[in-house]
Amino acid sequence: MPDTLNVLILGGTDEARRLAAALAGRAGTRVVSSLAGRVRDPKLPVGEVREGGFGGPGGLAAWLAEHDVHVVVDATHPFAARMTASAVEAARRTGLPLLILRRPGWREAPGDDWRWVPSLEAAAGLLPSLGERVFLTTGRRSLPVFAGLDGQWFLARSVDRPGPLVPRRLEVLLSRGPFTVDGELALMREHRVEVLVTKDSGGEMTTAKLLAARELGLPVVIVRRPPPPEGVTSVETVEAALAWLETATGPGPA
Ligand code: NAP
């Protein structure tokens, strides 16, 4: 065991920030959190942070060696499939232990009317049959996929302003969770929303929109997650990640 355990957290999620905070207090552990660097004013984790892509698996493998990293935790968003694939490949090349921390997806409950689709494109294809007034919560970078739908009106909520390729009939709401059910109900009523579109991101911060859609009897188009990589240990909670770090690397010196 090294005197100091160097952990790289691939972040950008609430779980990644909570893991960084928990490890910051652990003696003998040094944590660096990595962010993609695309959000203008990101919520920062405690401790050391680096920003920007690594340049693919080769770049990440080189970075891990250069910074003497001992273990990698991929706590990126469930839809950040490229970063995850890159982490898997870099771990294979360097022989470093890799853990995937992914919060569970959402589950339908009685009263829900969810339409599962495999992609954003499939979500766009389904919308004309479901309603005209759409609440789109799939992120600003997904807006080009819906740009060809002239028959729909969109309320798109995102953290940062979308780019130039967007639907013709669009209102943008710049906002960041967590959201409340009362707030979501008021928003959907005010804009006479007929259908909600979301990714299966999971987590507590943005479930309110799903509960509001249930209460209003609205259909929800929900994009399935990309499949998890095979052969990599995966956990669903920060607590389980901390336990894995203990067993995979042994307890810290103090
Ligand atoms: P992605 O498509 O898998 O990533 C694209 C590229 O961005 C990666 O290949 C990598 O570039 C770079 N990158 C992504 N995450 C990084 C990280 N944590 N640190 C350093 N570089 C990173 O992922 P994405 O959907 O663009 O998501 C980017 C970030 O936003 C992630 O950190 C994710 O947790 C967060 N986020 C994503 C979503 C979503 O819906 N996708 C939602 C909320 C938060 P290189 O190949 O050059 O290394």
Gap from first CA to last CA: 13 Å
* Main sheet characteristics: 6 strands, parallel
Bound molecules: NADP nicotinamide-adenine-dinucleotide phosphate
Name the beta content range: 15-25%
Q: What is the count of helical runs?
A: 7
Strands of the biggest beta sheet: in what spatial order?
3-2-1-4-5-12
Radius of gyration: 20 Å
Number of strands: 12
Instruction: Summarize the helix and strand pattern as letters.
Output: EHEEHEHEEHEEEHEHEEH
Shape type: elongated
Query: Which runs of at least 5 residues are low in confidence (pLDDT < 50)?
Result: none
Multimerization state: single chain
**Share of helix, binned:** 25-40%
Could you tell me the mean pLDDT? 95
Structural class by helix and strand composition: alpha/beta
What does this structure look like?
The chain is α/β, with parallel strands linked by helices and 254 residues long. Helices cover 29% and strands 22% of the residues. The chain contains seven helices and twelve strands. The strands form two sheets. The protein has a six-stranded parallel sheet, sandwiched between helices. Strands 6-11-10-7-8-9 form a six-stranded parallel sheet. It is elongated, with a radius of gyration of 20 Å. The mean pLDDT is 95. The structure holds NADP nicotinamide-adenine-dinucleotide phosphate.
